[in-house]
Amino acid sequence: MLEIKDLYVRYGGIEAVQGVSMSIPHGSIVTLIGANGAGKSSIIRSVAGLNKTISGQIQFRRHVGDEPVSLMGLKPESMVLNGIALSPEGRRILPHLTVRENLALGAYSRSNKKEIEDDMEWVYSLFPRLKERSWQKGGTLSGGEQQMLAVGRALMSRPDLLMLDEPSLGLAPLLVKEIFAIIRKINEDGKTVLLVEQNAYAALSIANFAYILEVGRVVLSGPGRELLENPKVKEAYLGG
Amino acid sequence: MRFDRNTFLTLAAMLVFGLILWQSEKFLGDYQIYIAKLIFINIILALSLNLIYGFTGLFSLGHAGFIAIGAYVAAICILPQAQKEMMWILEPIAWPASHIFTPFWVAVLGAGLFAGIFAFFIAVPVLKLGDDYLGMATLAFAEIIRVLIVNATPITNGSLGIKGIPNHSTLIVCYIWALFTLVILARLCYSNFGNILRCIRDNEIAASVMGINVFHYKVLSFCVGAFFAGIGGALLGSHLSTIDPKMFNFLLTFNVLMFVVTGGLGSLTGSILGATIITILLEWLRALEEPMNLGFIELPGIPGMRMVVFSVVLLAIILKRREGIMGTRELTWNRIFAFFSRHKA
What we know:
The complex is a heterodimer of chains A (240) and B (345). Chain A contains ten helices and ten strands. With 240 residues, chain A is of the alpha/beta class. In chain A, α3 packs parallel to α6 (143-155). Chain A is globular. Chain B has 345 residues and is an all-alpha fold. Chain B has a domain at 28-250. In chain B, strands 1-2 form a two-stranded antiparallel sheet. Chain B is globular, with a radius of gyration of 21 Å. The model of chain B has no long low-confidence stretch (mean pLDDT 88). The interface between A and B is medium-sized, with 27 and 18 residues.
């Protein structure tokens, strides 16, 4: 679905990503893990069109068998039309709008009211807690609920590729478990998921395939389960 | 529009208030009417800046420029040709300014349109900037507009300004334009469009990853705000009957900004309250500058005293209620009823 070839991302004089290549097949959960500053966020921000100083190739095939489309140089707002949604790091929900309004804005690029309503119901069924709080202002939600809202909002554009930037950031372990169970469910409902995480254990346990990044380069890749057993990964990311 | 209790109450209140104003000449003096008109004009200016700064988060300090454009366009439109030819003594007035003569409402709308179009040309380069830089750039553009007005003598009569502008902005006219502004902005701000603007204000990145063309909406909000600033300027010019470039300096922008911040950024009713209270306060405090007789001591009038007191009041507001009178809330019928039923119990 998504092919990244030889991607470089520069911020001023610093090369945050140095020649990363990866591929995300249709219907899979792929995760990028690594420490702070490894370049994980830079990669998905590049796919979403939020970074301008990049080089390399990013090719996207919305459905199996489609002609690949290059995403290089596209604006963030046109990514949504291509079927790519990003739930950005740090939640970034809208504190002054209600949960329902937040979700409705997620469907900004769509016009079919019936479909939007169906998707809203689907998001509410994934996150029953959002339904209970649908008239509450976004800013009054707890951290976990805000994260759910951010994921739900990204889903409202009816994407085929859902990119999540650190959904577990700052959440209690129990909530992390809940969110990851929902990510798996979203995947089972037919969405391809690209997941950026620091919480390596949680991410590797649900991922079909994983890439481990260190200072801008892929140092290790393989199926999630395999990496969980890998002694090097155990030592560096899973606490021995 | 749903026709429920609240819409009915709003319409009724608008009508009753309009009727009172219509009859106001019977019980209000000239001075009070003058202030009341100024309040309505200031409300229009405050609402228009609130759309740009309060709802969209664009820190624009260029409001005086748009007000100036509105005032000049309207003044040129409503002055009779003979009067214009007499007044332009530095250089004769150029065509087409010399031959335009329109009804007042056309002049006001034209003033708004002109300001809006001008804003569009400023917006395209300037709105690529953010925060403080945007403030500086718009401030500079407002100065450029002023300098242009000073130097475009064949159209604007240069630094002499325009005098004897027919006073078409009666109290009821000002009221109707203020209502027009309020209704349109309320419909805009409390719709999906308004949600998008607030989304851009709160989080630009979130807005763009949701597929919102952020730049497009910023330009739109900026132009609509400038349109209403132009309308306010047109009424202001006609109300004061004299305009000159010096009036439209940074202090005017600052005044409007004060209304908006005092009322609450992102609250339309807040802007109305802010503009009303500050306009009245500024007039009321004039008494401080006159000689005072306290019975035992005769105080001489100190010019500028009211600004000192006023600054203290503003400081108090900022220290005690940083979000303004209303914050981002609105004064709605539901809130009013809730307030009264709580106090009855």
